[in-house]
Amino acid sequence: MKPTLSTALLLTLSFASFGQWTELNLFPGTLRDDGLVLQGHHDVYVGTGIDASYNNLNSFQHFSDAASQPNWLPGVAMPNGAERQAAIGVSDSIHGYVFGGLTQGVSRNDLWEFNYSNQIWSPLANLPDSGRYGAAGFLLKGHVYVVSGDESGSASCSEIWKYSIANNTWSLYGQTPFGSRWRSAYITSDSLGYLFGGVDSTGAYRPELYSFSPSHGWTEIGQHPAGGLAFSAMVAIDDRLYIFGGSDASGQYSNELWYFNTQELTWHSETPLPDHGLREVMAWTLNKAFYLTFGLRSDGTRSAKTWRFLPSFSATEVARKEIQLSPTLANSEIFIQHPAPILDTVQLISENGIILQTYTRYPINQKIDVSELANGVYQVRILHHGVTEMLRFVKI
């Protein structure tokens, strides 16, 4: 298990720079929840799920934001017999992949590929194990990772399976270091997988946010300030991981929106959705906006609405986008991205505030060796022309 962050850092919050919600066109297809999203650049397909009569679905709709005019268009359904809910959806720029899920109470182990160009669905190799639903998934370096999930409807597992796209083969990658999870939110962003929340084997709703790298494994990078949630949605916009909705252990459905800044390792509360609390929504991003549709309300009805959230970025945040520390999960070295070619002073600081190293007249093309540091959280202080910036990274 990788090191966790301190409680003080995990509960660092911000309540500034609130964004704005706008209600858009109603979804034109069957009302549903528990579906998935496939996205390749500007191709967004929303589908599968379960309807109000508890029928599993194979239909998809295509969401377009051409010329900043959001609109729903017909999509291509999965073949008959591939109806499902609670499946994994992961994508690259060319293909979308759908794995597993639940069909009329039976978990599935099949994998499908959707070609955005020719709009064709193709079956791939089945997982050589029992079916999974409510699992998490990542697409990293040509592999689809299937994380945890429920095998039989009675208990979740802790297995991680890896599918090679090039070879059309499966292999058992290992076990999660945190035990089983079911109904976690997940996203792939900047060559890392992120997993939030979910239900563990004891039935507890988890608050942890993890990052995953095939090279370095799992790292806990945060805990949700509002506590444990499952059935939430997560998307990525720049350095922000947005987490919406879901339900907690008491059965409360949330309309809250939070984001976690992966550069600063801090949580921020955003404008809540001006509607009912929802879980099992389908969410995606386009042009730095966050969209969601459908979802289940606490009274058992399904939302037909599509919402768009436009984040607000302060002038300081906009300027800070040019100042980055990479990678934020570092094993051997880090480097600074900054508009200035040479910085006045750069300091490497431990989690408890001890200055470990000071560099003066620091050229930004010079990397900082962190290979000898103990695992944990560190800060880099940049002092340049009277302005101070603080960036964080995790040594793994």
UniProtKB/TrEMBL annotation:
Keywords carried by this UniProt record: Iron, Repeat, Signal
Secretion signal span: 1-19
Top-level division of the source organism's lineage: Bacteria
Family annotation (SUPFAM superfamilies): Galactose oxidase, central domain
One Pfam family from the record: Kelch_KLHDC2_KLHL20_DRC7
Name this protein carries in UniProt: T9SS type A sorting domain-containing protein
InterPro entries per UniProt: Gal_Oxase/kelch_b-propeller, Kelch-typ_b-propeller, Kelch_1
